[in-house]
């Protein structure tokens, strides 16, 4: 079965000691050294998310003080992991002739709580039913109900079995079923452990999944080796990524990205400021002002920016101090024009006013005579006419006087003479 974890050049290894009449365990491999002058392993290497189950042997052959060493090993392993609900989840199982799930994957998501639970584990004392322990892990621990994440999440399922004896049940078939189900098995043997049994249960390649230590006193040496095994190299932390702004680690590779307001150039490494004022990129009501990968909104003349910093409202251009009209300001949707009081006229500068000539043609409604009176006027009539009651039009005047008899006779003589002259003129005109 292919390894669920990308080891990425970090080999799990330990100084292994030979067992009498038993195959040798894997030889020590060189530890991967950090790049000179580069970040430490802690910054360049971080374990990938796992669903990790420890299965520890607490049979009668494991002395109480040795079992305490196992618990220290578990606690130190927990310290090396990136523990959390969305990162690595951990379960611990304890077995002898029976199996006990100390806590499943769903119980603890912080290191302190896990280590406290590990410190309370008690040994079971009898038998070494390793096959039963692996089978219980498959049926009762690696389930979504108990905290295993769905297959669609692609989270590796990993088992680390720690034992010092030979299994007393058929471990081969059970381990094969577990591997077929996608569970990666590491087998750690201590002291009297049967290395052949370790090889039967472990995943391929065996030299990276089977380990042996002479005593429980040195089992802690495995901690750093497992940390390297579960390491996912953080290329972004190595400083060799070439990204101008943001480096996103992607397993053994990486992707470049840009800060908000910037876009990745075709070279997939450098970034350019986005034209945030391009259509569809901003929410400005009137004017968008680009500002180095960001933008601010502004308004046309005569409008003011609302508190939402996006929309605009027409200013009251006739408010005091906003216009330069001498007399009257007339607001007009963000603009204004000037006017004058009655009796005044707007000067050519369109701002100031002068007294109007109210008697100028077209400015008054007097029939004959307009008489100006500062800002106002009155109507009058020519001699022989009198002003009508409407105070605008005029009528001919009617005069009356007392006439004496003598004057009356003169008048009649004059009239008679006029009639005679008129008659003679008419007679002459007909000849």
UniProtKB/TrEMBL annotation:
- Where does the chain cross the membrane? none
Question: Which keywords does the record carry?
Answer: Coiled coil, Disulfide bond, EGF-like domain, Repeat, Secreted, Signal
Domain of life, per UniProt, equals Eukaryota
Q: Which InterPro entries match?
A: cEGF, ECM_Assembly_Org, EGF, EGF-like_Ca-bd_dom, Growth_fac_rcpt_cys_sf, Matrilin_CC_trimer, NOTCH1_EGF-like, VWF_A
| Gene Ontology terms: cellular component | extracellular matrix; extracellular region
Q: Principal place where this protein is found? A: secreted
Q: Which GO terms describe its molecular function?
A: calcium ion binding
Task: List residues of the VWFA domain.
Answer: 51-226
Query: Which compartments does it reside in?
Result: Secreted
* Keyword Disulfide bond included in the entry's annotation: yes
Using the UniProt annotation, give all residue ranges assigned to the region (Disordered).
Answer: 25-45
Q: Where is the signal peptide?
A: 1-27
Q: Which SMART domains match?
A: EGF, EGF_CA, VWA
Tell whether Signal is among the UniProt keywords.
Answer: yes
One Pfam assignment: cEGF
General function of this protein: Major component of the extracellular matrix of cartilage and may play a role in the formation of extracellular filamentous networks.
Question: What name does this protein carry?
Answer: Matrilin-3
Native organism is Nicator chloris
As recorded in Swiss-Prot or TrEMBL, the protein's gene is named Matn3
């Amino acid at each position: 079965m292919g390894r669920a974890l990308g080891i990425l050049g970090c080999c799990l290894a330990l100084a292994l000691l030979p067992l009498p009449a038993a195959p040798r365990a894997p030889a020590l491999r060189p530890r991967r050294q950090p790049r000179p002058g580069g970040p430490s392993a802690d910054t360049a290497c971080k374990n990938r998310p796992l669903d990790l189950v420890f299965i520890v042997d607490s049979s009668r052959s494991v002395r109480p003080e040795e079992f305490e060493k196992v618990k220290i090993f578990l606690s130190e392993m927990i310290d090396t992991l990136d523990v959390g609900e969305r990162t690595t989840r951990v379960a611990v199982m304890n077995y002898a002739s029976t199996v006990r799930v100390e806590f499943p994957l769903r119980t603890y998501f912080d290191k302190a709580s896990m280590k406290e639970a590990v410190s309370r584990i008690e040994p079971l004392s009898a038998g070494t039913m390793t096959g039963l322990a692996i089978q219980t892990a498959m049926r009762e621990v690696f389930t979504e109900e108990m905290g295993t994440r769905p297959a669609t999440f692609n989270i590796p399922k990993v088992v680390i079995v720690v034992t010092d004896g030979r299994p007393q049940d058929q471990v081969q078939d059970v381990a094969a079923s577990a591997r077929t189900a996608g569970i990666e098995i590491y087998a750690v043997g201590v002291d009297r452990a049967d290395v052949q049994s370790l090889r039967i249960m472990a995943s391929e390649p065996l030299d990276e999944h089977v380990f042996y230590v002479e005593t429980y006193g040195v089992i802690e040496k495995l901690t750093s080796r497992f940390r390297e095994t579960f390491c996912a190299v953080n290329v972004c932390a190595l400083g060799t990524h070439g990204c101008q702004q943001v480096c996103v680690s992607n397993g053994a590779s990486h992707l470049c990205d840009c800060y908000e307001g910037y876009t990745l150039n075709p070279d997939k490494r450098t970034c350019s400021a986005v034209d945030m004022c391009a259509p569809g990129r901003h929410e400005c009501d009137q004017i968008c002002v680009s500002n180095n990968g960001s933008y601010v909104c502004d308004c046309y003349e005569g409008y003011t920016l609302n508190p939402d910093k996006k929309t605009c409202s027409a200013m009251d251009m006739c408010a005091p101090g906003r216009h330069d009209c001498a007399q009257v300001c007339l607001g007009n949707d963000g603009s204004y024009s000037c006017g004058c009081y009655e009796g005044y006229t707007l000067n050519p500068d369109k701002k100031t006013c002068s007294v109007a000539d109210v008697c100028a043609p077209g400015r008054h409604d007097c029939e004959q005579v307009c008489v100006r009176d500062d800002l106002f006027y009155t109507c009058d009539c020519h001699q022989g006419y009198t002003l009508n009651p409407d105070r605008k039009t005029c009528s001919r005047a009617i005069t009356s006087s007392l006439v004496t008899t003598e004057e009356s006779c003169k008048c009649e003589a004059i009239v008679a003479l006029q009639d005679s002259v008129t008659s003679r003129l008419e007679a002459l005109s007909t000849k």
